[in-house]
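User: My collaborator and I are trying to settle a disagreement about how two of our proteins should look. Neither of us wants to argue from intuition anymore, so we agreed to look at predicted structures for both before our next call. Could you fold the first one, then the second, and keep them clearly separated?

Assistant: That sounds like a sensible way to settle it. I'll keep them separate. The first protein:
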Amino acid sequence: LSLKKLGVLENTALYFGEMDKPAGIRSRAALAAATAASFLRDTEKKDIFLFVDNIFRYAMAGMEISAVLGRVPSELGYQATLEEEMAEFQEKLDTTKSGAITSFQAVYVTADDITDPAVIAAFSHLDGALVLSRNMAERGIYPAVDIFRSYSLGLDKDVVGEWHYKIASEIKNIFEKYRELSHIIEILGIDELSRKDRLLAKRAERLQRFLTQPLFVTEVFQEIGRASCR
């Protein structure tokens, strides 16, 4: 209904593999969607956007199929062919002369363990990851993005420019140092820090509040940033 109201339903193809369906159907639904995206890219000569919710379920479906077939599992019970099956799906989402497929994939992280084999298998094919932090959400910080686990291959001097790259790196360094000081602050308080560390902590807190504002609040700064890059 929401897609219809937005006027995008007529340009959208939906593929469902509900959790109450057999594992084979859930696995094939993902592959069918990727194949359809490739077909539309090549026949319509257009760029395609593919949203996957979520890719972890595709890995789980493969694990269930492997268990039914009696195959020997690898670590943590996953199928030995996990990497191969993930690659089979992800490699369909490429760029050709006809167009490009841009995919946004939700990844469920079991027990918040980002080292889970299924999560690693998915991340290894992605150009970037936006990792949400349960700890930051508990502190009421939204968007609850974990900047230490999130990454983007686009954060490169040749892509965003020297100025933006330098600012992003400096902000990340400030947050890294603030994280190291946070344990001392929680136990002894910020007044026990040296003057230099207190300034750094205050700067990190201001940056955190600035970056978690509603986007319309920072529109003026975005315009300044764009103007300085021209």
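The second protein, kept apart from the first:
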Amino acid sequence: MAKFESPDFYNLDEMLSEDERNVRDTVRDFTDSNVLPVIEEHYEKGTFPTELIPKLGELGVLGATLPEEYGCAGMNNIAYGLINQELERGDSGIRSFASVQSALVMYPIYAYGSDEQKKKWLPELASARAIGCFGLTEPDFGSNPAGMITRAVKDGKEWVLNGAKMWITNGNMSDVAVVWAKTGKGDDPKSIRGFLVEKGMPGYDVREQHHKGSLRASNTSELFFTDVRVPEENMFPKAEGLKGPLGCLTQARYGIAWGALGAAMACFDLARQYAAERIVFGKPLAAHQTTQHKLAKMLTEITKGQLMAWHLGKLKDAGKMNHFQVSMAKMNNVGIALDVARVAREILGANGISLEYHVIRHMCNLESVKTYEGTNDVHSLAIGQHITGISAFA
């Protein structure tokens, strides 16, 4: 297949600054040169390409929007979105690694952490000398984090942590885990606090999860805490209740809204190229009306998603973005990306299930992306509550 040609039907390039285009093009080249040549093999084996980790640190894409004083790039949110787009054009697992490191580990340390926590961890995480993970989801509590069982009990100048977390990206590679636990005697979600649990702390155990049919090139783990003694200085001083972890998820969902478009763009371009080259009944597949209809619909949905993501980035940079808008963008863009991947698979026919063409890999990955960081149903209910003023969650 020919080199990737980015779908840009509404001339979005013209709305990007030179710096934003340079960031996108740099990460696009990185994906073409470093991710695509190895990702098929890693996906098939179910392994994460750890050789990319220091390269991502050198590229400056980790914690890219955070201040330069912590070794970060200080980019705007449009540039950060484009980073996610281009990494996920390679693979959702690569974008997930960077997204967790940036939005779910570095962001809470920056937003909720002490000066000491920021100085200790942010430069290490930005350079990828250290890796982090985010422990919120539990075996029995995903969409309802308020029901978490993991608990931290104060004992002198330490907190004793007990519980478990599941579906944790980067888990068994991590040097530090951002872990959320209840600290009160009852089940009041207002008692939820965040802790930095460090690799090697006695009682902290991590086990990699295998047998996945999706996100196979992503590192996924379970975290177990058995009387883990966490120093008081490892608690976030500026996060209480669900507002802390939910604020992190808003950051991650923003990146996902852009990232899913990268997967959609890759699938569309592969389908377009394939349809132009494949001869069916004596003429190119692209010459058939049904194929043109499919391609036109795919491009339309991608274009709508691109415009939504771009304007969301503008709102975020202006400090006007709210989490309902992020829910809509995540819900819409992942949904259309999965639809585009499925239709691309149809256009490629039997070749659509071959990893050589990447489409089936994106399609399977997007099934997970649609679920994590809030399912479509949860996001639609959040939007519905905003519209009506009535909660339908319970």
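Some points you might bring to the call about the second protein. The two ends are 50 Å apart (CA to CA). The chain is about 50% helix and 15% strand.
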